[in-house]
Amino acid sequence: MGSTSELIRPSKPRQGSSSKPLAAKRTARAVSFLQHITSLRFSLNTILQCAFLVIHISIFILILYYETTVYRNPNGSPFEAFMGSQTVGARLMFTVFGSALAFFWEHMFATISTDDMYRRLSLPSSPSNVSSTQLLTLHAPSTNVFEGFWFSLRHRNFRVGAVALSGIITKFAPVLLSNIPFQMSKTWISHEICTWLSVVVLGYGAIVLLVQMFLFNACREARNTKAHLPVDPRTLAGRMYYVGDSRMLRDFERLSMLGQKHRDERVAKMGRGYRYGLIRGS
């Protein structure tokens, strides 16, 4: 059985290590600091998801209330008076809501895409003998929601696909939401189209968040398919943590000077397997 390049720092130092006690203490402090920051960021990410779930539902209810409620005297309700004031205030408020939703789903997609990359690497069925180019294609996280949606269709990754689709449709949220307050300069048909499209966008986003936060996480815990990430891999320091003790860096020495064809041939001849997880006996 061929050797496997580690992509995670071993839990115990190797025997015969000649590192100095001072360097070991500094390394332990750095790792402890990274783990503390990661725990804090994961907690904040959960709070952020809960907050935006409430925002999705609140705007959803607000739009339905505005659309379905009819007053004989429009100025009889402060909310109706504000929405029908024909000023920039109401449109600006909804535009800010739409922009916040678009930025949130971009952040959500980046988080899910990175987590999914390590999850696929940690699966036992992860491909082993692949070229460097194929390795990047199979496991590199998508850089934007459009690429991520296309990747999810090709590989049937429904989790990333659902989040990517929500990120795509919320890019139109600022325009759609800004047209919800009715104006005399616009037609009733355009107002109705923007209103009900906004309802669909918000409803879909709320459903995806609910499934992501509760159903999908519960299934991963039950199947034990959640990748253990001691530090946040989205930062440069976190990525250095995972490859710091790996032989991958030594294996790839001087390969950067070769062309793509020769480099892929050399990598294929190494017979290395690449996976994420705790590796013992190396």
The helix-and-strand class reads: mainly alpha
For the record, the count of structural domains works out to 1
Instruction: State the end-to-end distance.
Output: 12 Å
Strand content: under 5%
* Helical run tally: 11
Instruction: Let me know the number of strands.
Output: 2
The neighbouring-strand order within the major sheet is 1-2
User: How would you sum up the major sheet?
Assistant: 2 strands, parallel
Chain-averaged pLDDT: 74
Helix content: 55-70%
Radius of gyration: 25 Å
Question: How would the global form be characterised?
Answer: elongated
Task: Provide the succession of SSEs.
Answer: EHHHHHHHHHHHE
Uncertain residue segments? 1-19, 128-138
InterPro entries: DUF3433 (IPR021840)
Region (Disordered): 1-23
Transmembrane segments: 42-66, 86-105, 158-176, 196-216
Keywords: Membrane, Transmembrane, Transmembrane helix
